[in-house]
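USER: Study each token:
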Amino acid sequence: MPSAGPAGRKHRQGVTLAELLFVMAIMTLLAAMGVPRISQLISRAGAGRAIGVVASDLEYALSLATRQRKPVRLSCHCPAGTYTISDRATGTVLFRRRIGGPDGEFRLTGLSFSATTLDVFPGGITSGGLTVTVSSPETTRQATVTSAGFVRVIR
């Protein structure tokens, strides 16, 4: 209910519909301007988490070969966005991860290995170096494993 002011003017309480719509339009514009940047940040964070998981899995392959005291093989099925760790002698799959593709864990656009397979021996030595690359629409990240069994995330 309006109240009388000092000069007999009535002061209204609350806001009009036009004012409310104006404020909502400004907030919508500001939110729309921020959405592309937030999308980029989410995509980059996903690739960062994915390469961390890949590096962890590379270390797992090294420790698995040492624990089992027999060689294991890391192989990539890159078009499908998956890689496996299997017993080198029997081919039995010990571990599998689907990391790429639209229904993968991180919804990446690309997964690639510099070599199709990598043999990991019980002493922590590998058959050669390997570079793993994961890609999202906004960024690319890489992890490497050396022939001495040292794993690191590059970028």
User: Anything to note?
Assistant: Helices lie at 17-68.
